Amino acid sequence: MRIAETSDLWWKNAVVYCLDVETFFDDDGDGTGDFAGLTQRVDYLAALGVTCIWLMPFYPSPDRDDGYDVTDFFGVDRRLGTLGDLVEFIRAAKDRGMRVIADFVVNHTSDQHPWFVEARKSTDNPFRDFYVWRKDTPPDTSSEVVFPGEENSLWTLDEATGEWYLHMFAKYQPDLNVTNAGVRDQIAKAMGLWLELGLDGFRLDAVPFFLETRGQPKDEVANIDPHGYLRALRSFINRRNGSAVLLGEVNLPYKEQLEYYGGPEGNELNMQFDFLAMQHIYLSLARQDARPLAETLKSRPPINPDNQWAMFVRNHDELTLDKLSDGERQEVFAAFGPDKNMQIYGRGLRRRLPPMLGGDQERIRMVYSLMFSLPGTPVLFYGEEIGMGEDLRQKSRAAVRTPMQWNTEKNGGFSNAKASELVAPLVRGDYGPENVNAAAAKRDPESLFNFMATLIARYREAPELGWGSFGIIEQPEPAVFAHTCSSDGGTLVLLHNFGEEPVLVSGRVGPEHGPRQAYRDAMLLDLFDGGNAPLEPDGSFTVELGRYGYRWFRVHRKGDRLAP
Q1: What phi, psi does 490 have (nearest 5°)?
Q2: Which of 239-248, 385-394, 486-495 is predicted least confidently?
Q3: In this predicted structure, which of 232-241, 390-399, 428-437, 509-518 has the lowest mean pLDDT?
Q4: Computed from CA positions of residues 198, 459, 384, 41, in that sequence, does the dihedral angle turn out positive or negative?
Q5: E strands along 295-385, which residues?
Q6: Residue 97 and residue 90: Cα distance in Å, rounded?
Q7: What's the confidence (pLDDT) of residue 202?
Q8: Distance between CA 291 and CA 283 in Å, rounded?
Q9: What percentage of the chain exceeds 70 in pLDDT?
Q10: Predicted pLDDT at 471
Q11: How far apart are CA 315 and CA 207, in angstroms?
Q12: Catalytic, out of 22, 85, 151, 205
């Protein structure tokens, strides 16, 4: 792999770190995190090795949905600071070599947004068509709601005008009509503003929903190409910033995800989260059997070389298991969330990884090693690097959105406000700040933080992971996931044991019937500190893996001029 090429498409081997400004660090002492506080913690993220910071919504909002209910796409919520504070943060991050992207919500606004306030005044208001309305009573859509138990319909009657408006999510989040030219102009202007202020792209929320044509007249739907809008967005941001990225939330089967990349042309989303792989990681963990994950990854369709998958084991929403069968989902629930309070919407878990795995450090580290080794770009959720846990006292998805734990001081070092004034309570008990915090983790050479920093460094030194082709290594151990990533003559061999028992893994690099002397004078060079392993001339090898063990190797031939 030519290292010079890796900067052309920076997102293909980035390390993305997602955070919510309001729960990261409070500088002014009012109990809510802010941009001034985030700027104070930029060096912490740089020390970890992060290369791209993903900001959850920071726009003005009533904050009923953690900022995803936006009232102004052109501003910064005053609780978090000012535009100037945001720009200072972006400048500080870029000075440390980190790019910044931000959530952007195209699907809906808050019902308090001035556009919707105007739209409700009359059926002929100029902003009326910014949203989706219907005059007749809607059919029963209770089976289609995204958040079962929180809503019972996708339509709500607006008594002011006697018509129903569409909301794919909460009733206080009316859907925008993206077929309306005025809406598209406003979205483009807002994105253009943030790109001018230094953002490097956007994470697009709920992409399939904002491309829906539900509620549009049937004769018009036939002339609408929803994906044409996604292509237009991609074209627009690349005109404004040629290296900007669109990372999309698209929780669909692989075949449908391929459409959101733009098919073979790859001219829509640059990146998409791999929800299928994530869900099958948990099924494999529950079974201590790597085969569900292996079969899932083998079914991935080829994508344009400029596109990329985003790999994760946890994000800011529920840990959805919706693509598993009912029986498979129950297996994961039984293993990692047996109590009803740990489950949500009948399809997911509201837990973080360390408590789900019982605090087993060997197993936790194997999972993160696996995530970084899979072909794609790793995405971390704040606090993962220190092993934060969830707070099941909180409602819904707020269980995993607790304040960052910095030290053992007041409020875990997050804020010096009164505990009652905090934007959210801190975790208590075994995963509270007195036991899990960044200050202690940074100073402990054996901590998860320092393991993660090393993992990030090795990932960044192995461009094959972000750019290479993926292959499964056939071997007899069901608990072992063995794969290769290869690019321009470089090959990585990556081994992970999902089981509690040590195993001896025998496999072969390259095709079974390849040249018998293809690997003469080659060896497996260990990328951590477990010791190198011999490689037979035909590519065969035998490697021992411990309980939940993991090994990263590079195929090294005599005379290769590798970086130290």
Answers
A1: -95, 135
A2: 486-495
A3: 509-518
A4: negative
A5: 308-311, 319-320, 343-344, 348-349, 377-381
A6: 11
A7: 98
A8: 10
A9: 98
A10: 96
A11: 16
A12: 205
Burial of 493 (0-12, 13-18, 19+ CB in 10 A): buried
CA 293, 455, 492, 551 torsion-angle sign: negative
Q: What is the pLDDT of residues 246-256, one digit of tens each?
A: 999 999 999 99
Q: How is 495-513 classified by DSSP, letter by letter?
A: EEE-SSS-EEEEEESS-TT
Q: Does 391 qualify as catalytic in the annotation?
A: no
> Is the separation of the CB atoms in 97 and 7 below 8 Å?
no
Q: Give yes or no for a contact between 473 and 506, defined as CB atoms under 8 angstroms apart.
A: no
Q: Count the Cβ atoms, other than its own, within 10 Å of residue 373.
A: 26
Residue 317 CA to residue 337 CA, distance in Å, equals 16
| Spatial CB neighbours of 559, under 8 Å, sequence gap ≥ 6 | none
| 334-365: pLDDT as tens digits | 999 999 999 999 999 999 999 999 999 999 99
pLDDT at 1 over 60: no
Instruction: Indicate if 256 belongs to the active site.
Output: no
Q: Which amino acid is at 131?
A: Y
Query: Pick the catalytic residue: 175, 249, 274, 289?
Result: 249
Q: Which helix (H) or strand (E) holds 285?
A: helix 275-287
